Automatic annotation (TrEMBL):
Cellular component, GO annotation: synaptic vesicle membrane
Record bears the keyword Coiled coil: yes
PROSITE patterns per record: C2 (PS50004)
Official protein name in the record: C2 domain-containing protein
Highest rank taxon of the organism: Eukaryota
Species of the source: Leptosia nina
Chain coiled-coil ranges: 1-39
Biased composition (Basic and acidic residues): 727-738
Principal location listed in the UniProt entry: membrane
Record-annotated membrane-spanning stretches: 558-581, 661-686
GO molecular function: calcium ion binding
Length: 746
């Protein structure tokens, strides 16, 4: 039932996701329709004034002809941007309409002129006022003859957009006072202008993606936090992050002064905001207000881009430290060091890197054993994650705890990221994980494909396409044969890498523990069974030699065992292991390596999918059959674990005299073994043991093979047996009832 509920939950999540996408699409369509309606209404409003426009144009031609401005201002097809007086309240409606249409046509802005003349109500006075304004412009106010941009245009040209909109709305209000029928239409235009102005910034941030970089934060742990709960002498800490207007709150770690969160999240960095990351630590209280534990700030402007930083910060206004992994990547600017379009490879830089990681430089203070360069060109054939048949893909590269990513390419299935990234290699045996995601609204992601590349398998300077896999990393990802175009180079110090390999491996902080799944459990059991069967096969070969199934093999085995025991030296153990490695090396050179690493084609994938379908068909059994299959597997594992536990408890009980008789026998056997090893060399004892094993079938054909030590331990009871044989104290009936009552009350 739990699996069915899990499938239903996933189905519900897909439905909710689809509903959100449909709702966003409907909202976009509604906004477009509303914009078209408002534009049509505005055009109708202007059409009512078409007759006045023709007369006004005639007046404009006459006024311009009478003006004293030179010929470059008198051209009718390119009227310059001038500043005229704001109309008064008592102005004529025709003049107001004329000015409004002039603003709409040529982008005029109303401002008080230096002339004291106001707009006249008749045509003659209008000419004089215009002349005064133009003369003022030509004499005292030295301005360029460029046409001023309209209200609502892009910033950067010194225009006050709010002032322009207010001017237009004032004109509309005055027209509405003169024409009451058009007042409602003017109000609608006013609301339309205010709405577009109010939503412009929001649309830019949410739909046009103007963030400059992505700040990826891994909240690892904290140490030495103060205890705020006096009863338990601990705290229930959680963290809050703030970067500009974005916030994030971590989960609560209950009753710990050294919490470990292991949470990863993204915040977005904008060019117009302060680059200060605020981190506060709080203690969760269920009944009262949360207690403050400390805070710290990180200046992101001082951190190097496209690099993962390990940051320990002391908490201010409190005690303790907090550990973060912070990466600033995914930049949208084209003039950055990660842009391939402007990147020019310098051979001198490559030589410096090769010198830094030369094999004889072991005392260098560099943090890693090598240098990795990855050029991400683009991808093709990606799956369509949006309803419009497109995706918004971006690529994430992970090497150990280092994590970098490209920017997002919107509405495409063939993105061209054109980025270059560099990593410091701390372990040459690491695997580079490359994942392609689709960015949804609210910066959520959807999986598109993944690729895992061992660093030792990288061919320097080779530019080629790599196929993307699905989440299980067993089959091809969804889409039209999705691929990613990469070029990689790795330079490393072999001696430093060898020293690093035999040291403890750096833990990956964001490694997710796999939850219990029946398929995964059965797969792990099958893997363990294959290894155990390998040892069982070797044991069967030895057993056949002992049983003389093949006389030639048994005789040769006996002679080899006697020669080994007689001439045995300690150096022979690694020598025989070298022989084993030499055999496998010859197989590797002849066959090309492990068959699991050989590339597979679609036919092999189809065959594997057919096998998986058969497995799925087997899984589509009745509940009783599935429970029986689970019971068989768990019973095998249960018995194996129980046997190992019983063996360990038997050794413990044998040494602590749980059964004194068996302990005394073990002591006598140890004394005898000590005397025999003191008198007889070990090699002769091994030879005698081998002769006994090889000749048992000939001399004593009906005896059962045994191991004396295991036979002795099988007689020692384990803890479960001790609990079974433990006696109960006899009580009188009245005392027994009182004991039961006390037990129930307790």
């Amino acid at each position: 039932m739990s699996e069915a509920e899990h499938k239903m939950g996933r189905f519900k999540n897909k439905i909710l996701r689809l509903q959100e996408k449909l709702q966003d699409r409907v909202e976009d369509l509604t906004d477009q329709v509303q914009n078209k309606i408002e534009k049509s209404k505005l055009s109708k409003f202007v059409s009512h004034l078409s007759e006045d426009r023709s007369s006004i144009e005639d007046v404009d031609r006459d006024s311009i002809g009478k003006s004293s401005i030179d010929s470059k201002y008198s051209q009718s097809d390119s009227i310059p941007s001038v500043i005229i007086d704001e109309p008064s309240v008592n102005a004529d409606p025709k003049d107001i309409c004329k000015d409004f249409l002039t603003v709409e046509k040529h982008g005029f802005l109303y401002r008080r002129c230096r002339s004291a003349t106001n707009l006249a109500l008749d045509d003659s006075s209008f000419h004089s006022s215009s002349e005064s304004c133009f003369s003022c412009l030509s004499s005292s106010d030295e301005r360029t003859t460029e046409i001023r941009p309209r209200a609502g245009s892009l910033p950067g040209q010194n225009l006050d957009i709010a002032f322009a909109i207010n001017t237009c709305t004032d004109i509309i209000e005055k027209i509405g006072n003169r024409f009451p029928r058009l007042k409602t239409r003017g109000d609608r235009i006013h609301r339309y202008l205010l709405k577009n102005t109010r939503l412009s910034d929001v649309n830019k941030r949410l739909k046009a993606q103007i963030w400059s970089s992505v700040v990826t934060i891994v909240l690892v742990e904290a140490k030495n936090l103060p205890a705020m709960d006096l009863d338990t002498r601990s705290s229930d800490p959680y963290c809050k992050f703030r970067l500009g207007n974005e916030k994030y709150k971590s989960k609560v770690v209950w009753k710990s002064l050294h919490p470990s969160w292991l949470e990863q999240f993204d915040l977005h960095l904008y060019d117009d905001q302060e680059q200060i990351l605020e981190v506060t630590v709080w203690d969760k209280d269920k009944q009262t207000k949360d207690d403050f534990l400390g805070r710290c700030t990180i200046d992101l402007s001082k951190l190097e881009r496209e690099k993962t930083h390990n940051i320990w910060k002391d908490l201010e206004d409190g005690n303790g430290q907090i550990f973060l992994l912070l990466t600033i990547s995914g930049t949208t600017q084209s003039e950055t060091i990660t842009d391939l379009a402007t990147y020019r490879e310098n051979p001198r830089d490559i030589l410096n890197v090769e010198k830094r990681y030369a094999w004889y430089r072991l005392n260098e203070q560099s943090s890693g054993v090598g240098w990795l360069c990855v050029k991400v060109y683009g991808a093709k054939g990606l799956a369509a994650a949006d309803l419009g048949g497109k995706s918004d893909p971006f690529c994430v590269l992970e090497l150990g705890n280092a994590r970098l990513q490209t920017h997002t390419e919107y509405k495409t299935l063939t993105p061209n990221w054109m980025k270059i990234f560099t990593f410091t290699v701390k372990d040459i045996s690491s695997i580079l994980d490359i994942t392609v995601y689709d960015e949804d609204h609210d910066h959520k992601v959807e999986f598109l494909g993944k690729l895992a590349l061992p660093l030792l398998n990288i061919r320097n300077g080779e530019k080629r396409w790599f196929a993307l896999k699905d989440k299980k990393m067993r089959a091809r990802a969804k889409g039209n044969y999705p691929q990613i175009l990469l070029e990689m180079s790795v330079i490393w110090n072999p001696l430093k890498a060898a020293i690093r390999v035999v040291n403890p491996k750096e833990p990956k902080y964001m490694h997710q523990e796999a939850k219990f799944k029946r398929q995964l459990f059965i797969r792990n059991v099958v893997r363990l069974k294959a290894i155990i069967m390998w040892f069982i096969e070797i044991g069967k070969i030895l057993q056949d030699c002992f049983e003389w199934e093949s006389r030639i093999c048994s005789f040769i085995g006996l002679l080899a065992w006697l020669a080994f025991c007689y001439y045995y030296q300690m150096w022979m153990v690694p020598f025989f292991l070298l022989i084993f490695f030499s055999r496998n090396w010859l197989i590797y050179r002849l066959t090309g390596g492990n068959p699991l690493l050989a590339p597979v084609d679609d036919d092999d994938l189809l065959a594997e999918e057919d096998d998986e379908e058969e497995v799925d068909k087997e899984e589509k059994k009745s509940l009783k059959e599935r429970l029986q299959a689970i019971q068989e597997v768990t019973q095998t594992v249960q018995n194996a674990i129980g046997y190992v536990a019983s063996l360990g408890e038997a050794v413990k009980n044998l040494t602590n005299f749980t059964v004194p008789y068996l302990s005394y026998i073990a002591i006598i056997m140890l004394f005898a073994a000590m005397l025999v090893l003191y008198v007889i060399p070990l090699r002769y004892l091994l030879m005698a043991w081998g002769i006994n094993k090889f000749t048992r079938k000939i001399l004593r054909p009906h005896t059962i093979p045994n191991n004396e030590v295991l036979d002795l331990l099988s007689r020692v009871p384990d803890d479960e047996t001790l609990l079974d044989i433990r006696e109960l104290k006899p009580h009188a009936p009245s005392e027994r009832k009182d004991a039961r009552k006390k037990h129930k009350s307790s």
